[in-house]
Structures are given as structure tokens and as C-alpha cells.
């Protein structure tokens, strides 16, 4: 199964934190280097990271990637997705989107693929450490092979609407770096969200274990995409709002990005 997977050219559009974590972990798992392509948006800081990670040789432009890859990973910020334009993919090209807030229908329309899977994982560090937790929708055999290769602990969701709660779950390791998960008020906040998405309590307790022991500030910075949902929750917490209100702010930000 792994050998079949490794024959696919895999293109990662958006080689930022998530994109580079995926590329590095795939390479560590022996995914053939010549079958991985990456793109970014021209930032010199990103180029410098790619160079330091020995990934600079894998850089391609988006149009090369959409022409030559049978698996496309989307890891650009949601607000940058539209600017990429029409992809013109064949219907069966597998598109795996890591973007929060962009629906499967929108991705299908813009890419031309009819084979789109969404995944919301905990941060890039957890992908690198092979302890990411994620929500996935819908189930897809080929995508599952990749998630298993990367040792992602994934939950297949009942419907796409649950993705929005998974977006919150993906933020929890950062959230628990700045608030105490064991406070009664915070447990209640998680319980309230679980009324809408029952896996939330289990995922929340797994997320608590993903808080790093040191360098918490750096960790929070790393997982907070500018303008993204984690940033909205962390900003709200730092304004003194409760965890529940801050999670609701996160849901609202997710809605704005959709
Ligand atoms: N970070 C997390 O913990 C997390 C968790 C779950 C889901 N996500 C989702 O994952 C996605 C990526 O997050 P991230 O934290 O990795 O963000 P990031 O570090 O900002 O990386 C995004 C990358 O996309 C590139 N990009 C932007 N526009 C592009 C374009 N038109 N063509 C090609 N590349 C383009 C950027 O290039 P430049 O560097 O040149 O600007 C950047 O390298 C987001 O959609 C986010 O919602 C993130």
C-alpha cells in the first residue's frame, strides 16, 4: 500500500509551518524526494526556512504542481486560497485541504477535482513529532494511507459541519499553553462545545497532553497563523475573556474566513 502511495507525485501548495512539517515528515518516512513538490508565496523568510530544512530543491510554481501531481495538499492561509485561481485539475486528482474555513464545495469548484478531503490537525510541531490529532471529512482510502504514514490520530467526522469544532480542537494545544485546562470553568466550556460535537471532550484531553513543557510562547506563535482562528482565540483570552467566549470568538473567525 505504501509502495503504491509512493508512486504519486505529491504537491504541497503553501510551504509554511504545516506544509514544511508535512514535507519533512514525509521524507523521514522515506517518501521519495523526487516525488515531492512545494510552493510558497515568495517570502524571503520562508525561502530561508526551506533552505535550512534542505527543501529548497523541491520548490516549484503552482502551475507546475497542478500539472504534474496526482495528490495536491493545500496548506495556504484560507484568505490566500482564492488568489491562486482556477486549478483545472482532473476530477480524480486527490486534493487534501488543511485550510480552516474553506468548504469542500468551494475547493471542488476552484480546483476542478471531485475528490476533496479536508483535515484539521493540531499544529505543525505535532505533525513533526508524529503525535498530531486531527478531524477528517470525508473518509478517503488514499488520504488515510498518508495520515497513517504520518501517524496522525484522526477522527472521521460525521459531516462537514463538525469541521468547525475540529478547528477549535486544533487550537487547544496552544490554548492550554496559556490557560489551565483543569479549571472548572474551562472544563465547563469544553462540555458546552461537546453538546454539539461529542468527541470534543476526548480530543480536548488528548490535546492537553500536547502542550510543550517549555518554550510555550514560541509554540503558540508557531501555531497561530496570522489572521487565523488560533490567533483570534489567544487574543480574546489575553483581553481577559473566558475560555468559552474565546472559543466562540474562534468559531466566529472561522465563519468569517469561510
Ligand atoms: N498552524 C496550525 O496549527 C494549523 C492547524 C490547522 C490548520 N491550519 C491551516 O493550515 C494552513 C497553513 O497554516 P500555516 O500555519 O502553515 O500557515 P503559514 O505558516 O502562514 O504558511 C502558509 C504558506 O502558504 C504560502 N502561500 C500563500 N499564498 C500562496 C500562494 N498563492 N501560492 C503558494 N503558496 C502560498 C505562504 O508563502 P509565504 O511564506 O511566501 O508567504 C506560506 O508559506 C492554513 O490554511 C491554516 O488554516 C493550520
TrEMBL record:
InterPro entries from the UniProt entry: NAD(P)-bd_dom_sf, P5C_Rdtase_cat_N
Keyword Oxidoreductase: yes
Keywords associated with the record: Oxidoreductase
SUPFAM superfamilies in the record: NAD(P)-binding Rossmann-fold domains (SSF51735)
UniProt-recorded Gene Ontology molecular function terms: pyrroline-5-carboxylate reductase activity
Pfam families reported for this sequence: F420_oxidored (PF03807)
Any one biological process term the GO annotation gives: L-proline biosynthetic process
Residue stretches making up the Pyrroline-5-carboxylate reductase catalytic N-terminal domain: 10-101
Signal peptide location: none
This protein's record includes keyword Oxidoreductase: yes
Assigned protein family: Belongs to the pyrroline-5-carboxylate reductase family.
Protein name: Pyrroline-5-carboxylate reductase catalytic N-terminal domain-containing protein
